[in-house]
Write a structure and sequence with these properties.
The protein is of the alpha/beta class. The chain is 38% helix and 19% strand. The longest helix has 16 residues, at 174-189.
Length: 191
């Protein structure tokens, strides 16, 4: 079995969450790409990546959950999805930023421009178009009750019925993975 993990903003496929998933699910291959910064590049890249890898499940956190939701036709878990990146001025602001984790291309910094923010805005207006009956049944949302970064439970629940809250914050840790994410992974993959 294979899981694809989509990381959050400024992170990489080498995030601590990826390592925890590999540790907690040793029988499952966990693949995690580095997501391009610009959504105009990222969305088509991820769609092609998923089509090539053919995962049994996609898990995304924050910005990665926003992208995961758009991988129509696949089972997915969206953890604290940041569906409104272009309006998250504390996170998505113009200028140069540092990546939080090492990336395969060895880049240490990235730039956010007004064009990139506009690309996020354009994508956000289209992100729920394309939902199929399969997606309605197989897209799950997990929302931390102490998440102060973004609260998109109501927006998710407007489109999908499988939404639940967990005792946690925006970023995942081992305790939350074990208590909220792993039971759902095992349920979905029938482990």
């Amino acid at each position: 079995m294979k899981i694809i993990y989509f990381h959050g903003f400024a992170s990489s496929g080498a995030s601590g969450t990826v390592e925890l998933l590999r540790k907690l699910l040793p029988e499952i291959e966990v693949v995690a790409p580095d997501i391009p910064v610009d959504p105009a590049e990222a969305l088509p890249y991820l769609q092609q990546f998923v089509a090539t890898e053919q995962p049994d499940l996609i898990i995304g956190t924050s910005m990665g959950a926003m992208y995961a939701q758009q991988m129509f036709g696949y089972k997915k878990i969206c953890v604290n999805p940041a569906f409104n990146m272009s309006r998250m001025s504390k996170v998505l602001k113009t200028g140069e930023h540092r990546f939080l984790n090492g990336r395969k291309d060895s880049q240490k910094t990235f730039k956010i421009t007004k064009d990139i923010i506009q690309h996020f805005n354009n994508m956000e207006r289209q992100q729920f178009k394309g939902i199929t009956p399969f997606d309605l049944e197989n897209t799950y949302g997990l929302f931390g009750i102490h998440d102060t970064s973004c609260n998109t439970y109501d927006l998710f629940h407007k489109y999908y019925k499988n939404a639940q809250r967990f005792d946690g914050e925006h970023q995942l840790n081992e305790k939350v993975l074990k208590a909220a994410v792993l039971p759902l992974v095992k349920q979905i993959l029938e482990l």
